[in-house]
Amino acid sequence: MRQLSFKQVDVFTAKPFFGNPVAVVIGADQLDTAAMQRIAAWTNLSETTFLLPPTKPEASYKLRIFTPRQELPFAGHPTVGSAHAALESGFAKAVGGKLRQECGAGVLDLTVEGNRIFVNAPQPKLSEVQAPLFGKGRAIRVDVGPIWIVADLGDAKAVDSLKPDMAAISALSKELKASGATVFGRTGDASAPLHVRSFAPAQGIPEDPVCGSGNISVAAYLRETGLLQEFGPSYTARQGMQVGRDGRVQVRVSADAIQIGGEAVTCVDGKLRVD
Hints:
Layout: E1 2-11, E2 20-26, H1 33-43, E3 48-52, E4 61-66, E5 71-72, H2 76-89, E6 98-103, E7 106-113, E8 116-120, E9 125-129, E10 139-143, E11 147-155, H3 156-161, H4 166-175, E12 180-186, E13 194-200, E14 205-208, H5 212-225, E15 234-239, E16 247-253, E17 258-262, E18 264-274
Parallel strand pairs: 2-3, 4-6, 11-12, 13-15
Antiparallel strand pairs: 1-2, 1-18, 3-4, 4-5, 6-7, 7-8, 8-17, 9-10, 10-11, 12-13, 13-14, 15-16, 16-17
């Protein structure tokens, strides 16, 4: 029986048992896709990743990302958490504070800034949709690999008190070929002016604790609608309080790029036994 190095990393937090956990299997090149999907279903986290040697000469490593039900081309918190695991384990080394991740979305640039890791997001593709489930506010479908239906609920109290209809969100997700829905509202707190929640019941994830791709999608929404001027080109979003995780995502937005990042901490460091 083989053993592979395994870490469980909490992302968008410096405190264990907060943020969003990702399981990372290191040096998983002997596993086939079916085995990776079984492991992801077994961990039952929103995402499980597999660090592999790169196939592109410009990449530091290759990453495959799985939900309990399917593989994703990209996801935010798994990218940050896996980069943390790659550096901590010595699987990859930053060169000049830079890493390059090969994944289904292409080769993405990452920056290591002290205890924080930032990723340049894939270019989002946006289209306006009808989503009366979230009231009369404007809803936009944002594709960054995962696809989110993003809605502005106004203020953080509306986001906090939302009791999502999971069956309706699942039906909407299937209708619009989306991963799920992400909603946001204003907190009035300059240190974290946005409160965000993300729901992906069609993917087996009722509420994603702190969602990187969801926050990328919110940033794309703000830029598209002109609302970004309320928050400026750099802001912090809070997410996860409703599920006891309370994470912080740092977001940077320009005319042609979106970056997200934050801290990460390893909570489990051991071996995974595989046939």
